[in-house]
Structure formats: structure tokens, C-alpha cells
Amino acid sequence: MQSEPRPKKLLEQVRDAIRMKHYSYRTEQTYLQWIRRYILFHNKRHPNEMGVPEIEAFLTHLAVSEHVAASTQNQAFSALIFLYRHVLQMPLDERIDAIRAKRSRKLPTVLTPDEVRSVLQQMSGVHRLIVQLLYGSGLRLREAMQLRIKDLDFPQHQIVVRDTKGQESRITMLPTKLNHPLQEHLQDVKRLHQRDLDQGYGAVTLPFALARKYPNANRQWVWQFVFPASKRCKDPRSEAIVRFHLHESGLQKAVKLAVRQAGIQKRVGCHTFRHSFATHLLENGYDIRTIQELLGHKDVKTTMIYTHVLNRGGRGVRSPLDS
């Protein structure tokens, strides 16, 4: 007699629900981590035995004892809301009154055009090309890494940025200055892809359920990553051998080194080039709504922070000492 299949554990159910909604692998890992921490915080009690008071206690602990940022606390809150709403089918009707972490009011770090050039002069190869895209197109780091061949439109001088933060696509400019370097880079990528195909590989991960709908699409040229990794690896979801895109950490280290070599005394990361893109467009007279669309901000209030950067310090006010 065939035994009954064992019921799935809670975290397996969470994983299935996340994949049903086509959330990214990174979101899947993040939500699972927060749900584990929530359960451990309450001495391994099952979440269906808990509710609003326990969620409030956990979120308050994060803010008061662990001093997490507001964005981190919101991330944990989103994971728990997902757990109760989509896995346990227990919508939380009561108001959740946890002590909230304080939001940072820091202005973004922005480089001058000369500082951007000095950093780029310290870089070479693929890393230099990616930073040029971050600054020249206003891309987030993950958006640049996840670009596929079909997303580059050279005749129209534009990039289609897909599956962005908020799961909405947008269009931004492809700098003319990068046409030739990018096309040369893609020739190397195409040779790498052909070598993979000759060895019986050549597949990449596809978004959502496209791999089932189009079984051979993952080996087609247009679906390949613009910045592929140097080595093939196992897809953590399908367990197929694929070539993923470059890991973000390599570029982050390269930027840190270039900033130090350029002698720039600012706290600069990859996202600084996106901030600089927006601020320099404002300085050049482009309107805030256009910049909002290029950045992919849902609310213009998010974009307005760059006007504060322009109006602070020596840029907006003349010192009385200089009068």
C-alpha cells in the first residue's frame, strides 16, 4: 500500500507561494530568512498560533534592540504579511502598532562630473563598462547586471529595463558613447555563448514560466546576459547548469578600489552613479518628471530629493564671506 505523501513544512509552503507569484530568487531568500528569525524569536512557536501581538513584539525588537534601518524593518514586515496573507490564509485585520525604526534623512552622495571621470580612469574592462551604464543610463546595479541582449536597442539609443524594483519595466537612454564599446563587448559574449553551446550548455535562467512555455528559449542569443559570469553554475531553483550574470560583489570591490585610487574623500558605492546621473540631469535643465520616468520612480517625491542636493551648500546659496 502506497504511503501518503508527507505534508510540506511551513518554509516549503512559503517557497511555493513565492514562486507562484514569480518573486525573484533574492526576495525568496530574504522572506525565508525573516520568517525563520520570527519563529526563532518566539521560541519556535508555529506562526498560526501567533498573530498581531507577536508581530509587534518582533518588529519592536528589531528597532529597539537591533537598531535596524527603517527599510530593513519594512522588509521584515513585508515578509510576515506575506506569510499570514498568502501562506497561512490568516489576513491581519488589526492595526500593527510596533515601534518603528527611524528613517534616515541623509542626502545621497553625489560625485561631480570630474570626479566621475577620475573614477572611470582608474577602471578598465567590463567593470568600467558597467559603471558607465550606471552613470550614463541611471541604472541600479542589479538592473545593469540583469540586462539581456534583447534589452539593448542600438538603433533607438535606448535600454529597456525589465523586472525592475516594483516589477515594472521602463525605458532609459543608451549613451551614444557606449555604442562601440558595448558592441565590441557583445562580440566576446557571443563567442563565449557559442563555446557553451558547442559543449552542450549555453542555457540561462528565464523569468517566470517562460522556460516551460518556450523550452529552447534559454539557449537563444537574445536571452543571454549582457554581462555573463566567467563560470557556469547550478540554478538553485531548476538545478540545471546555466551561465548566470556577473555577481554584484565583484563590481562593488572594483568601484571601492577605483575611488580610493582616484583620491576621492566621499563614501561612494555603485548606487552613487545613479544619484549622480539624476543630479547632473537636473543641473543641465531637464525637468523633474522626465528624470522620474528615466529612474523609474513611482512617486515624484522620491525624485525630489535630488533638488535638495542641488540647493544645499555652495551650489544653492552664496556665502556672506564671498560677498
TrEMBL record:
UniProtKB keywords: DNA integration, DNA recombination, DNA-binding
In this chain the Tyr recombinase domain maps to 106-319
Indicate the segments forming the Core-binding (CB) domain, all copies: 1-88
Report whether DNA-binding shows up as a keyword of the record: yes
Q: Where is the signal peptide?
A: none
| Pfam families assigned | Phage_int_SAM_4 (PF13495), Phage_integrase (PF00589)
Alphabetized InterPro entries for the sequence:
CB (IPR044068), DNA_brk_join_enz (IPR011010), Integrase-like_cat_sf (IPR013762), Integrase_catalytic (IPR002104), Integrase_integron-type (IPR011946), Integrase_recombinase_N (IPR010998), Integrase_SAM-like_N (IPR004107), Tyrosine_recombinase_XerCD (IPR050090)
* Protein family: Belongs to the 'phage' integrase family.
Kindly provide the name given to this protein in its UniProt entry.
Integron integrase
Q: From which organism does this entry originate?
A: Almyronema epifaneia S1
